[in-house]
């Protein structure tokens, strides 16, 4: 069975497990509740007296349900030492006699999403297998820094001259900017026509805003800590390249690797060859490591999706359906129209074959919501399945995974308009242009990790004077949309790579599934069956 099919099965298993056996499952007993800070816990049903000791508690067990005009839930939770200490510090009388570990009871009104029922059994099941997903992610991330560094130095060194690098760099950055702006135009065009923000009822809006305001504040705080544009540019130069490698600062690593590659090309080749060869071999080893780790991919994605699907409730998702649908439609249009044209006309490849060649990377991007973590696999897809040279892919892909996020930009454009519409603000042309500029920069600034686009969206909202509390509205849906936009981000990087390769005069071919299955040296199938020839013979002769 092909690796792609196995990953797909893994994803299916994860989704089904999430729906039926996750914390939000509708078949397991929902005997637990999660409450947000805004939900009041009172001593008796309908009573006024608040249970002070409920502060700091967010999960509890349901012990009784009282139906009436309103459904009341009697809940029980264990007093945590930390919460107790905080209450004592605040001088709460009730905390004086209480002790940590004590069971406390109270009543809450069942109202989604302030109080949300969940299944503790489902949660235990998710926790039981979560480590597989985390292990898989950790393993694949382990390869990112050495792979990017080695392949970029070797790639730049083998480009040979400055002019080629300057040409490739200039074209790539221009291409990234144009496609990002196009993504924003598509997303915002749709949001202006559909106006998803006008579709939510006043009630839903108030409930959502109240229940998530704490989380939105955290996101805004994260965004406020982001440095200015000038600082960001200067910080690309690493004062200590080893520290940059150790911390995984991707732009700094790219900058240093490019500079080192340039320095190597300026040296006589008899002196530089040893370093280039060493890094080249190290790069081969990293590639092999990617294939070893990918053996775990089907299980990893199953565990990752089990958790995401299992913990995401659906009611909030329904309320935000129109907004989500606009984002998804925008992503689909960008994929088929913009990428479709670039791949067909620019790279002169059949779009279907291109998409098939990218499947492992897209599925991984979808399951991990991280274009950075997927980078090693995207690179393998471009080099092995689409025959892009290592020089081009080593330059375009790491840069793309860091700064080129069309999916993120598109989502930010829609989200900014959606939130503005909810607040009843009519944005004029000037403000919409500001969104295009700031979302382009915000998508550049967003790291390729889950939820990064949400953080930089706060900057976009601030630019146009839309209340950042509005982020609260879209938090519930963000995890799900992140999967789709990450997948598009990855496809965008690969599209840029094949286009740039073609502009550099490379003849691209798509590796057929049959050839992939037959040849253990190419593609994703049977790569670990290479036996005693892990190094290609023609490369042997170079040392
Ligand atoms: N998760 C996205 C990515 O890795 C970034 C985002 O949050 O939009 O590409």
Keyword list:
67% helix; disordered C terminus; Proton glutamate symport protein; mainly alpha; 543 residues; globular; five-stranded antiparallel β-sheet; 2 domains; binds aspartic acid; 23 helices
Describe this structure in words.
By secondary structure, this protein is mainly alpha-helical. The chain folds into two domains: 30-115, no CATH class; 123-518, Proton glutamate symport protein (Orthogonal Bundle), CATH 1.10.3860.10. Helices cover 67% and strands 6% of the residues. It contains 23 helices and five strands. Strands 4-3-2-1-5 form a five-stranded antiparallel sheet. The longest helix has 40 residues, at 120-159. The radius of gyration is 26 Å and the shape is globular. Residues 532-543 have low confidence and may be disordered. Residues 369-371, 405, 408, 446, 448-453, 482, 485-486, 489 line the site of aspartic acid.
């Amino acid at each position: 069975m092909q690796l792609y099919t196995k990953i797909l099965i893994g994803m299916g298993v994860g989704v089904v497990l999430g729906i039926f056996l996750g914390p939000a499952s509708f078949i397991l007993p929902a005997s637990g509740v999660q409450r947000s800070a805004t939900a009041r816990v009172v001593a008796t049903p309908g009573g006024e007296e608040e249970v002070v000791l409920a502060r700091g508690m967010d999960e509890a067990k349901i012990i009784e349900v009282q139906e009436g005009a309103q459904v009341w839930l009697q809940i029980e939770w264990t007093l945590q030492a930390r919460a107790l200490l905080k209450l004592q510090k605040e001088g709460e009388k009730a905390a004086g006699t209480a002790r940590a570990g004590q069971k406390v009871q109270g009543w809450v009104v069942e109202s989604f999403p302030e109080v949300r029922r969940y299944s503790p059994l489902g949660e235990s099941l998710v926790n039981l297998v979560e480590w597989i997903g985390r292990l898989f992610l950790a393993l694949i991330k382990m390869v990112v820094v050495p792979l990017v560094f080695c392949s970029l130095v070797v790639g730049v060194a083998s480009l040979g001259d400055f002019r080629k690098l300057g040409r490739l760099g200039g074209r790539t950055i221009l291409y990234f900017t144009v496609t990002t702006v196009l993504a924003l135009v598509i997303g915002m065009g749709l949001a202006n026509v559909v106006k998803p923000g006008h579709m939510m009822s006043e009630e839903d809006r108030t409930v959502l805003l109240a229940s998530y305001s704490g989380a939105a504040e955290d996101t805004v705080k994260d965004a406020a800590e982001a440095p200015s544009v000038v600082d960001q540019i200067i910080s690309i130069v690493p004062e200590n390249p080893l520290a940059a490698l150790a911390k995984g600062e991707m732009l700094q690593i790219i900058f240093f690797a490019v500079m080192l590659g340039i320095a190597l090309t300026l040296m006589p080749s008899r002196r530089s060859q040893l370093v280039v060869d060493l890094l080249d071999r190290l790069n081969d080893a990293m590639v092999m490591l990617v294939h070893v780790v990918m053996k775990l991919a089907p299980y990893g994605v199953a565990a990752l999706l089990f958790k995401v699907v299992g913990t995401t409730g659906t009611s909030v998702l329904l309320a935000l359906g129109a907004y989500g649908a606009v984002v998804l439609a925008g992503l689909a249009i960008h994929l088929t129209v913009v990428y479709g044209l670039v791949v067909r006309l620019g790279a002169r490849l059949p779009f279907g074959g291109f998409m098939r060649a990218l499947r492992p990377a897209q599925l991984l991007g979808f399951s991990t919501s991280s274009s950075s973590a997927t980078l090693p696999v995207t690179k393998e897809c471009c080099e092995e399945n689409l025959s892009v040279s290592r020089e081009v892919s080593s330059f375009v892909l790491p840069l793309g995974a860091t700064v080129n996020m069309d999916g993120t930009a598109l989502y930010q454009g829609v989200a900014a308009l959606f939130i503005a519409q909810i607040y009843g603000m009519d944005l004029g042309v000037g403000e919409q242009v500001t969104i295009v500029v700031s979302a382009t920069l915000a998508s550049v600034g967003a790291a390729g990790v889950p939820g990064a686009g949400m953080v930089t969206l706060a900057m976009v909202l601030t630019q146009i004077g839309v209340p950042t509390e509005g982020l609260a509205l879209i938090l519930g849906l963000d995890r799900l949309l992140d999967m789709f936009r990450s997948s598009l981000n990855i496809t965008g990087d690969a599209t840029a790579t094949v286009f740039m390769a073609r502009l550099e005069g490379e003849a691209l071919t798509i590796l057929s599934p049959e050839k992939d299955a037959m040849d253990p040296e190419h593609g994703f199938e049977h790569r670990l069956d290479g036996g005693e020839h892990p190094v290609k013979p023609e490369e042997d002769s170079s040392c």
